[in-house]
Design brief:
The complex is a heterodimer. By secondary structure, chain A is mainly α. Chain A has 2 domains: about 90 residues, Orthogonal Bundle (Rna Polymerase Sigma Factor, Chain: A), CATH 1.10.1740; about 90 residues, Winged helix-like DNA-binding domain superfamily/Winged helix DNA-binding domain (Arc Repressor Mutant, subunit A). Chain A is built from 9 helices and no strands. In chain A, helix 1 crosses helix 2 and helix 8 packs across helix 9. By secondary structure, chain B is mainly α. Among the domains of chain B are: about 45 residues, no CATH class; about 90 residues. Chain B has 6 helices and 2 strands, in the order αααααββα. In chain B, strand 1 and strand 2 form a beta hairpin. The chains are: A mainly alpha, B mainly alpha. At the A-B interface, helix 2, helix 3, helix 6, helix 7 and helix 9 of A face helix 1 and helix 3 of B.
C-alpha cells in the first residue's frame, strides 16, 4: 500500500495505518539522523520526535502524495533545532570518534582496525561539513533522494541543492586526501 | 554551456539524473576541459569512499498507541467546544464578539442594566429604573417661580436686616469704646493738672517761706546794726 493511501486511511480514523507508516519509515529517518549526528541516541530521539510530530500534524499535510518530503522536512528541522539547542559541539559525537576495539590477532586484525579507524574518520569528515552541505550529501548519497525532492524538502532552488552537493563532495575529497582515506582502506572484509 | 553549468550537470550525471542528450553534451564539454575532467574523477572517488559509511539500525520499533476512545466528561466538553469554536481566525474573532455581546445582553437582563443617553453622554447603570417625575403645567411653573422669587426677596431682606443690625451693634460698640477712651483720657489729664497745681502751690509756699526767712534775717541784721 502506498504512503498516500496509508495517510488517507489514518486521517479517516484508521490508527493502525500510522503504525504501518512508522514501520516503513523508522529505519530511513533513523539512518538519516544517525548520519547527521553520528550518534545512535540522538538518532533515536530525533526519530521518536519526528513520528510524534507527524502524528500530531498529519492532518495539516496538504498533499498526501508528498508524505516522504514532508517527513524528511520534519526530521531535518528537528535536527537543526537540536543543533541550535545544544550547539555545534554536540554534532561531533564522541561515538564517531571512539577507537575501534583492538584484537590480538596478527595482520588481519591490524587491517580490520585500520578499516574501523577509516570508518570513524569517514563519519568525522561528514560531520565537519557545514550543515547545509551535510544534509544534502546525506539525502542524496544515503537516502537516495532526487535533487528535486531534496529541493522541495529544504525549500531551496534545485541549482542551490546541486551546488551544495558539489561543494560538499569537494570538501570531503579534500578531507579524505588530508587524512589518507581512500577506497583501499575499506577493501578489507 | 560554461563550467559552472557543467558542474551542476555533473551532479545530475553522477547520480543518474541526466537525460542522454544532456549527458552527451556534458561529457563532450568535460573532455574539452582537463580541469573539469580532474574534478569529475575526484568527486567520483569521494563518492565511492562515502559509500562505505556504516549505518546503524534502530534498536527498538516505535509504536504509536491509539488514544482511548472513551471520553471523559471533560473530554466531551472539550469536543463540544472544539465543534462550536470555528477554526478560521476571522470567524473566531466574529464568534468571540458574538459571545461577548450575548454575555452582555444576558448580564444586562439579569442585573437590570439601564442605558441612558443625554447631552453629557451615555450612562450605564444597574438596578431598578429611576422614577420619572411628572411634568408641571405652565401655571404651576409660574406659581413655583413666583414662590421662589418671594422666597428670594424675603431671604434678601432678612439678610440685609441682619447686616444692618450687625452694623448698628458694631457702631454702638465703637462709640462706647471711643467714649470710654475719651473719659479715661480726660480723667488722666485732670489728674495731671491737679498734680501740677499741687506742685506749683507747694513751690509758691516754699518761696514765700524762703522770702520771709530772708526778709527776717535782713530785718534782724539791720536792727542789730542800728
Amino acid at each position: 500500500m502506498e504512503d498516500a493511501r496509508l495517510v488517507q486511511d489514518f486521517l479517516g480514523g484508521n490508527h493502525q495505518a500510522f503504525n504501518t507508516l512508522v514501520n516503513r519509515w523508522q529505519s530511513k529517518i533513523h539512518h538519516f539522523a544517525y548520519r547527521y549526528f553520528a550518534s545512535s541516541d540522538d538518532a533515536a530521539e530525533i526519530t521518536q520526535k519526528t513520528f510524534i510530530k507527524a502524528y500530531q500534524k498529519l492532518d495539516t499535510l496538504d498533499d498526501v502524495h508528498k508524505f516522504s518530503s514532508w517527513i524528511y522536512r520534519i526530521a531535518n528541522n528537528l535536527c537543526l533545532d537540536e543543533l541550535k539547542r545544544v550547539g555545534r559541539k554536540r554534532a561531533i559525537s564522541y561515538e564517531a570518534l571512539k577507537v575501534a576495539p583492538q584484537t590480538k590477532t596478527a595482520s588481519a586484525a591490524d587491517e580490520k582496525l585500520l578499516r574501523n579507524e577509516g570508518l570513524v574518520l569517514l563519519h568525522k569528515a561528514l560531520l565537519q561539513l557545514p550543515n547545509e552541505q551535510r544534509v544534502v550529501v546525506i539525502m542524496k548519497e544515503y537516502e537516495g533522494l532526487t535533487f528535486p525532492e531534496i529541493a522541495e524538502i529544504l525549500n531551496e532552488p534545485i541549482n542551490t541543492v546541486k551546488s551544495r552537493m558539489y561543494y560538499g563532495l569537494r570538501a570531503l575529497k579534500k578531507t579524505f586526501d588530508s587524512w589518507n582515506i581512500n577506497k583501499e582502506v575499506f577493501n578489507y572484509e | 554551456m560554461n563550467k559552472e553549468q557543467a558542474r551542476l550537470l555533473l551532479m545530475d550525471y553522477m547520480y543518474g539524473e541526466l537525460d542522454d542528450t544532456r549527458q552527451q553534451e556534458l561529457l563532450a564539454f568535460i573532455n574539452q576541459h582537463e580541469d573539469l575532467k580532474q574534478e569529475f574523477e575526484e568527486l567520483t572517488e569521494a563518492k565511492s569512499v562515502l559509500h562505505h559509511l556504516p549505518v546503524q539500525s534502530p534498536a527498538e520499533q516505535i509504536v504509536i498507541m491509539e488514544p482511548s476512545k472513551t471520553k471523559s466528561p471533560e473530554g466531551i466538553w472539550q469536543l463540544l467546544l472544539q465543534a462550536l469554536i470555528p477554526k478560521n481566525a476571522f470567524t473566531q474573532t466574529g464568534f468571540g464578539i458574538a459571545v461577548l455581546a450575548f454575555v452582555f445582553v444576558v448580564t444586562g437582563a439579569l442585573t437590570g442594566l439601564n442605558v441612558t443617553y443625554s447631552d453629557s453622554g451615555v450612562q450605564l447603570g444597574f438596578g431598578e429604573q429611576p422614577q420619572v417625575e411628572p411634568t408641571f403645567t405652565a401655571a404651576q411653573v409660574e406659581q413655583i417661580v413666583q414662590q421662589v422669587q418671594r422666597d428670594n426677596i424675603a431671604l434678601v431682606q432678612q439678610v440685609v436686616a441682619d447686616a444692618q443690625e450687625q452694623q448698628n451693634i458694631q457702631l454702638q460698640d465703637s462709640f462706647a469704646a471711643f467714649a470710654s477712651y475719651v473719659e479715661d483720657q480726660r480723667t488722666t489729664d485732670l489728674k495731671l493738672i491737679n498734680t501740677g497745681l499741687t506742685s506749683l502751690q507747694e513751690n509758691t509756699y516754699n518761696r514765700f517761706r524762703q522770702n520771709e526767712q530772708v526778709l527776717g534775717e535782713i530785718i534782724e541784721t539791720v536792727s542789730y546794726r542800728n
